[in-house]
Design the sequence.
């Protein structure tokens, strides 16, 4: 692993040039206005890649601010939902164009406040954001109902209606992409929205709101910044919020789900994961092994330091090719450059904050003490400053081991050998998570048989890229409920069905059952 050391002052320059006002603050957006919190309290935002560098301040929103934002979203709702879908479509397509023009600025900002490397992570994410606005703008016409064949004297139809005001809560690990899963989908269907950005990485999301502003009536899109308990929980519990869409940890998702359930409002939960990557012997042949190992690293989301809910962090390799695949994986991981997220040669940036760094470090330290596990690669052994950490691989681990079960959310993989398909599918499924899975196998009938049996919401065969717009995305088990990213996700998550039955002309009223 090469370290290019700490990020320079580049991150601060990026932020100053893009979002800071004269006081070095970045206000929230409520009702079309850029505002401070009612109590004028602020949260410092630091560059994770240089954690002593303060990038700016964002408002510390509390109850009064949530009240204001939800009220603004309600005021805007009737006008927005009444619009012809082509108007909403045009607004979203115009925003997509502006986001494409500003993709580099958004990529730099998100690299600055998440610590994710610009080239492999932040730049593709900013492009995906624009693509998501374009996609949901495109499918705005699909919010359709159906007509029942109920006879000539009856018109019986359904119409899909917006749910109302959506409360959306974002995590820090890929804030732009997750904002892109929720905002354009909710708006295309005629809802208005109040978004709570993560306190760890709010800057690019606030810039996104600014870029959207010329195309949306005030109050259609509101962005709050604040802490989880003071702002996120208040938003999820607010009686004016008609739908909650949450992406984050399983622990917080459980409480958000309980709050929404108590109020009987619909909720989507995109939560954690501990996803399996399975390598069959034929995917490790001399001709295939490079491609497979490239995919193993991509599935591990190593260019996001493994800070991804879909990270394929449990690597199951067939015993016959175990050593070969493990050696090639470790060799490739060693060749990665860890350092300044803004440097074009960087493959891995920094972890998000000190507590996350310490959490991941403690997992690695725990692994080092185990006599029954081999340390194939030790990410703590290289000297990195600040919150940078190299990848770690523990080898010949047991699937029941704590590190093979808990979501580490860092660059730590656990490799496990297997012998039979039956055995590996059982191990893959022996997890309380069920988000993603990556299957590397030349024999497609074998791979598809496994795909049918692996308990995950999203399975990739012989590839490991990120989500493609239009696909259904979401988890099983404790990885969450509901689907986003797709047309069907938009319809399920952000619309409700109304049935209308009409007697036509002098037809007979329908008999009551
Ligand atoms: P987190 O759960 O700590 O926080 C997520 C958001 O919830 C933040 O905005 C936070 O302020 C807010 N929050 C915290 N406490 C809250 C409460 N009591 N009520 C309401 N909101 C509250 O998660 P994180 O650390 O930001 O993100 C990492 C986690 O997110 C990981 O577990 C990861 O797997 C998960 N994640 C899931 C997906 C997915 O699509 N399934 C995507 C990205 C991240």
Sequence:
């Amino acid at each position: 692993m090469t370290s290019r050391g700490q990020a320079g002052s580049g991150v601060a320059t990026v932020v100053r040039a893009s979002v800071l006002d004269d006081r070095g603050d970045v206000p929230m957006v409520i009702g079309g206005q850029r505002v401070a919190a009612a109590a004028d309290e602020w949260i410092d935002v630091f560059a994770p890649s240089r954690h002593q560098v303060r990038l700016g301040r964002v408002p510390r929103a509390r109850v009064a601010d949530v009240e204001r934002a939800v009220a603004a979203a309600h005021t805007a709702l009737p006008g927005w939902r009444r619009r012809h879908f082509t108007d909403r479509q045009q607004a979203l397509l115009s925003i997509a164009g502006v986001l494409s023009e500003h993709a580099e600025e958004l990529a730099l900002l998100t690299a600055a406040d998440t610590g994710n490397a610009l080239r492999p992570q932040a730049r593709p994410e900013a492009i995906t954001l624009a693509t998501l606005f374009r996609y949901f703008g495109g499918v705005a016409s699909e919010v359709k109902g159906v007509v029942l064949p109920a006879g000539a004297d009856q018109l019986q139809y359904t119409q899909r209606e917006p749910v109302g005001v959506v409360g959306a809560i974002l995590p820090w690990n890929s804030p732009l992409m997750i904002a892109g899963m929720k905002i354009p989908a909710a708006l295309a269907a005629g809802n208005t929205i109040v978004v709570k950005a993560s306190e760890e990485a709010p800057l690019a999301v606030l810039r996104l709101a600014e870029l959207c502003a010329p195309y949306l009536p005030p109050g259609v899109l509101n962005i709050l910044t604040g802490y989880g308990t003071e702002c996120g929980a208040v938003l999820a519990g607010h009686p004016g919020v008609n739908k909650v869409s949450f992406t984050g940890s399983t622990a917080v998702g459980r409480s958000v789900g309980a709050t929404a359930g108590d109020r009987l409002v619909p909720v989507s939960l995109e939560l954690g994961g501990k996803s399996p990557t399975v390598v069959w012997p034929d995917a490790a042949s001399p001709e295939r092994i490079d491609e497979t190992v490239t995919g193993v690293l991509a599935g591990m989301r190593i260019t996001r330091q493994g800070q991804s809910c879909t990270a394929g962090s449990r690597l199951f390799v067939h015993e016959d090719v175990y050593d070969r695949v493990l050696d090639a994986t470790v060799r490739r991981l060693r060749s990665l450059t860890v350092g300044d997220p803004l440097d074009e040669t960087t493959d891995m940036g920094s972890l998000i904050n000190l507590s996350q760094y310490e959490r991941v470090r403690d997992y690695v330290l725990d692994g080092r003490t185990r006599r029954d596990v081999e340390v194939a690669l030790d990410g703590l052994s290289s000297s990195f400053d600040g919150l940078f950490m190299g990848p770690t691989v523990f080898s010949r681990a047991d699937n029941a081991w704590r590190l093979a079960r808990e979501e580490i959310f860092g660059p730590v993989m656990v490799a496990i050998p297997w012998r039979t398909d039956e055995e590996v599918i059982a191990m893959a499924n022996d997890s309380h998570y069920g988000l993603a899975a990556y299957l590397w196998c030349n024999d497609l009938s074998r791979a598809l048989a496994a795909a049918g049996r692996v308990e995950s919401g999203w399975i990739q065969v012989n590839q490991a890229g990120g989500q493609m717009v239009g696909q259904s995305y979401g988890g099983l088990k404790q990885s969450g409920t509901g689907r986003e990213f797709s047309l069907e996700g938009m319809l399920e998550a952000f619309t409700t069905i109304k049935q209308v039955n009409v007697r036509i002309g002098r037809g007979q009223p329908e008999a009551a059952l």
In short: The chain has two domains: 13-271+479-498, 276-461.
